[in-house]
Amino acid sequence: MQKGNSWLAFCILDFSFIVLHFKMQILNAGQLRLWDQYTIQHEGIASLDLMERAAGRCLDWLEKNHYLDKSFCIFCGKGNNGGDGLALARMLSAKKSKVVVYILEFGHKGTEDFQVNLARLHQTHVEIRFIQTEETLQSIPANEIFIDALFGSGLNRPLEPMAVQLIEHINETGNEIISIDIPSGMYVDKSSKDNTMVRADHTLSFQCFKPAFLVAENEPFIGELHILDIGLLPDFLASLKNDLDLVDMPFIHALYKPRKKFAHKGNFGHALLVAGSYGKMGAALLAAKACLRTGAGLLTCHIPASGYTVLQTALPEAMIETDEENLIISAVNKNISGYSAVGLGPGIGKDEKTKDACVAILKGHPASIVIDADALNIIATHPELLSRLPPYSILTPHPKEFERLFGEAPNDFERIAMARKQSKAYQCIIILKGHNSFIAIPGGAGYFNTTGNAGMAKGGSGDALTGIITGLLAQGYSAPEAAIFGVYLHGLAGDLAARIHSQESMLPSDLIDCLGKAFQAIEA
Length: 524
Description:
The protein is α/β, with parallel strands linked by helices. It folds into two domains: 6-242, Rossmann fold, CATH 3.40.50.10260; 251-257 and 264-523, Ribokinase (UDP-N-acetylmuramoyl-L-alanine:D-glutamate ligase), CATH 3.40.1190.20. Helices cover 39% and strands 15% of the residues. The chain has a ten-stranded mixed β-sheet with strand order 8-17-16-15-14-13-12-9-10-11. Strands 3-2-1-4-5-6-7 form a seven-stranded parallel β-sheet, sandwiched between helices. Helix 11 links the parallel strand 12 and strand 13 (369-371). The longest helix is centred in the C-terminal third of the chain and has 23 residues, at 479-501.
C-alpha cells in the first residue's frame, strides 16, 4: 500500500491469524505485561519461548503475504521488542531471505532475552551492524523492506536523540516499513502527539488491541493493523476488571433481540423525531427513514409546517405532526411522555423559539432522549441545560460539537477522558463520533466501535445515526444497548454501502438502504 493513503489504510484489520476462542480485548501496557507473565507461569514456558512464538507469527505473516523473496533491514533496540526482531532475523535467514540487522547501541547490555537472541544470531550468516552515531546511519537501497523492532509496548518515556534521528532517517527513505508490536515511539495508552514515531505501512501486533490503535491522532503511523495470535492464555482475561471494551460482531450478536412470530407493531414502540427547518428537511427525512428501517413500530415526526408535503410524500410510513411555525420548530404542544423514544436535533436550527422547544422537550420526556446536531449546539450555548437532561440521554457529538459542549482537549486521549468524566457528571451517554467512535457510559465503562469508514464523512450520516438509535430505544433496548448497537449497526451499514458504491460515491441514504443487509449479517 502506498504512503499517502494512510487514512484508508488506518486499522484495516487482518484477523486471519487469530483463533477466536476469546473475545478481542483492549489492554493497556501494564495489562499486556501481566498477560505475558501469566502465560509464562501457567503454561510453564520461558519468556524466551514466548518471544520465539511472536517472531514465528511475524514470519508466518511475511510468508503468507509473499515477502520472503525480499531483502530486509531489521532495526532493533536492546529491549524485548529488539529481541523479537533478532529472532525474526534468524528465522528469515533460515528461509534464505537476505537480512541485515541494525542495532541501536547505547553502550549497555540488552535485556536477557535480547542477549540470548543476539548470541543465536551470531551463529548465522546474518550481518549485524551497530548504530552509535549519526555518521553510522548508512544509505540503504530503495528495495529493502524495513522491519521496525526498536521500541515496543513498554515505551513510557521520550526517546534519546540518537533514536529520534534513526526514526527520522527510517521515515525519510520512503521504504516500506513493517512495525513489530507497535510503531516505535508510540505509547500504548497515552498520547504520543508530540513524539517522533515510525510511519509504518503495516503494524504486526499481538493478541489484542491497544488503546493507541483506536485514536485518530495515531492514524498516520499505524498503516494496516494485523493482530496475530501468539497463544497467550485466555483464562487471564477472566481476572481483568477492564473498563474499556471493543464492540465487534460477537458482542453485537449477543445484544440483538430477534422478533417473535406473533409480534405486532405495538411491540416495537412509538418513536417521536423532532427535526428539520426550512432548507434542512433532508435531515428530518434521513433520520425518520433510518428510524423506521431500524424497526420502530410507529414513528411520528414533528416538523415545521413547510416540510409536510416533502416528508409525507417521501416517507408515507411516517406520521407527520406540523409545528405552528412554517419555517422552524417552536413548540411540541402535545404530551410527549407517552412516546417510547424521542430523537431531537437533526436540522432544527438555533432559533430562540427552537431553544425554548428543546427545553420543553427535555422537561417533558422522563426517559432517555437522543440528542444530536443543532440540539447539541443549543445546549452548548445554554450549558445549564446539561443539568436538565433526562437520565441516560444519548448525546452524539462530532469533535467540534463536543468541544463546544465541554471544552477543548489537547489530544484524543484527553478528549476520551473528558467524555468519560462528563458522562458520569451528567449521567448521560456520550458518543464521540469518528473512526472507531467511542461510547462513554455513566458507570465508567467505555466502548470503541469497529465498524464504519471514511465514506460516511458526509452531511447526513449523523442524522441517520440519530434515527437508528431512536428506533432501537423505541423497541425496548436500554439506552446503553441502543447506543452501542446503534453505532455498530450504523457503521456496518456504511461498510456495506461502501462495497456497493465506493467510499467516495456512497450517500447517507445508501447507508440507510443497507440497514437490512446489516441486520441479516448480525442475525447470521
